[in-house]
């Protein structure tokens, strides 16, 4: 079985791009600016409203973070697909999951407002 040199060159270029991206992410995540000081707080929220707002913020952050991961996976799959229809479909599925994640993150404030109405938080 002979490999097409042009195909191998494209694959090597993609692997080099992925490696460079991962190295950049590793450098940024391990830099001193990425580290936070540890602070001990016993009780921050003092009302139900504050608790629900904190829950909203956590939900939005987690959903947006997971959506970004799916968006990245979809983009990498699309780049590495090399025209393979099955891989392109998997990439589209990851893009769809990212869109759903971003949509749910955008709806988190509405869910918290409904919870405030149920529990009586103002």
Description:
The protein is mainly alpha-helical and 122 residues long. It has one domain (5-119). It has helices spanning 5-29, 48-80, 85-119. The longest helix has 35 residues, at 85-119.
Produce a short descriptive summary:
This protein is mainly alpha-helical and 122 residues long. The protein contains three helices and no strands. It has one domain (5-119).
Tally of extended strands? 0
Mean pLDDT equals 79
Q: Helix and strand string, N-terminal first?
A: HHH
Strand content: under 5%
List descriptors.
mainly alpha; 76% helix; 0% strand; elongated
Topology:
Blueprint: H1 5-29, H2 48-80, H3 85-119
């Amino acid at each position: 079985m002979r490999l097409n040199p042009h195909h191998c060159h494209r694959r090597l270029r993609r692997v080099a791009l992925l490696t460079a991206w991962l190295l950049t992410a590793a450098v940024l995540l391990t830099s001193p600016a990425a580290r936070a000081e540890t602070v001990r707080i016993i009780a921050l929220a003092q009302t139900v409203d504050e608790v629900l707002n904190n829950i909203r913020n956590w939900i939005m952050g987690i959903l947006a973070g997971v959506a970004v991961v799916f968006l990245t996976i979809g983009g990498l799959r699309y780049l590495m697909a090399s025209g393979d229809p099955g891989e392109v479909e998997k990439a589209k599925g990851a893009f769809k999951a990212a869109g759903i994640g971003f949509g749910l993150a955008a709806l988190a404030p509405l869910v918290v407002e409904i919870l405030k109405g149920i529990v009586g938080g103002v």
